[in-house]
Amino acid sequence: MGSAAKSQRASAPETTDTPATADARPAPRFLAAHSEDVLASLGDGLVLLDLTGEVAFVSPRAEDLTGVSAAQALGRRAEQAFAMNPWIGETVHRLRNGAVGRTSDAGELVAPFGRHVAVQLIAAPVLDALGAVVGTLLLFRDMTAQRSLGEVAERGSRVGDLAAVAAGLAHEIKNPLGGIKGAAQLLAEELRGSATGVRFTSLITREVDRVSALLEQLLELTRSPRLHLAVVNVHRVLNDVLTLERAAGADALSVRLVFDPSLPEVLADEAKLRQVFLNLVKNALEAMGTAGTLTIVTRIETDFHVRHDAGDRGQFLSIDVEDTGPGIAAEDCERIFTPFFTTKTSGTGLGLAVSERLVAQHGGTIRIESELGRGTRVRVRLPVAPAGQRG
After folding, report:
1. Do 385 and 309 share a domain, yes or no?
2. Do 163 and 254 sit in the same domain of this protein?
3. Is 228 within 8 Å of 238 (Cβ atoms)?
4. What is the reported pTM?
5. Domain carrying residue 235
6. Would 119 be classed as within a structural domain?
7. Boundary-marking domain end, from 142, 162, 185
8. What whole-number distance in Å separates Cα of residue 188 and Cα of residue 185?
9. Rounded Cα–Cα distance for residues 83 and 89 (Å)
10. Judging by beta carbons within 10 Å of its beta carbon (0-12, 13-18, 19+), is residue 112 exposed, middle or buried?
11. Which of 41, 138, 213, 266 lies 20 to 30 Å from 221 when distance is taken between CA atoms?
12. Strand, helix or coil at 278?
C-alpha cells in the first residue's frame, strides 16, 4: 500500500459504525450464524456429501422430495441412503470418478408409498478457497409443475387437431338441424289437434335442441377463449357456484368447505373460472346421487411452482373438489380429459375437455385422482396474481 493511502487511512476519523475488522462485518457474521438455516431454506432440495462420499447435510426440501429423512441419511454413502433411487448413486459415482466436472440429469424420484416426483438433479464438486475438492453438492429441482404444464400443452395440441376437424362437421350439421327444427314446429301447428302428432313433433324439437347444445360445446373446444382478466377471489367464485347448485336442488347432499382465508387472488376471467368449477361441482354431485359429501379445499401450493427466467418462483393456488361417489377406474382416469370420453350414462364427454382447456388458458393445471369405491378428487392449480396487481 502507498504512503498516501496509509496517510489517508491514518488521518481518517474513527466512527462507531465503521467495523474494525473484516470478521465484524454483518455478512460474515450472519453466514457464520445462519449458514445451515440458509441451506435449509432453499426452495430446491440440497444434499451435501463429504470427501468420502458420505451424506453430511440434507435440507428439509430434499427430505420431502426423496422421502428420506436427514436422520436416515447422515453418515451413509449416497447409494445407500438413496437406495430407492439408484440413479442418484450412479450420478455421484460418475462425478467422483472424474467422468464429468458437473452434471445435470432429469429423472424421477421414487419415494415411499409409491409417490413419484419428476426432478432435475444438478451434481457438482464443492471446492475450497484453494480449488481443492472437499465434497459433492446434489441439488434436486422439483419439475412437477413443468411436467404437468407440458402434459396439458400436449393434450391441448391433440384436442386442437381433433377440434379443427370437428368444427367443420359441427358447422355442416348445424345448418340442416335448423331446418329440421323449423319443419317440426310447422308440422306441430298442422297437427295441433292430434295429441300423438304434438308429442312426436315436441320430441323432434327437444332432440334437435340437445344436438345443437352438444355441437355448441364441441365448437367451444375450437375457439381460443378471449379471457377478460381481472384480479379474482377464488372463494367468491366457489361460493357463487354452490349458491347456483343449491338453487337447483342440491341441498340434500352434505357440503364441507375447508377454505384458507389468507389465500391471495388470481388473475383470471371470472366467468370462465365459474364455468370450470360449476362443471366440476355438477360432476361431483351427479357421481354421488342422493347421498354423500362434497368437500372443497383451498390452499396455497407449497410444492408446486414454476421457475421464471428472472429466477423468481411463481406460486400456485390449489383448489380440490372431492366427492364420496363410486370413483373412477385407473384406466379411465388416463382418458378422462379426452373429448367424447365419459363415465356417465348421459354425459357428452366434453365438459372436462373444455374445463382443462380453460384452466390451461389461465396458465394452470387440472388433474384427477380417483379410486373405485373411494370417491374422486379433482385438483385445479391456478397461478397467483402478481403481487403488484392484488387487492
Report:
1. yes
2. no
3. no
4. 0.51
5. 227-391
6. yes
7. 142
8. 5
9. 8
10. exposed
11. 266
12. helix
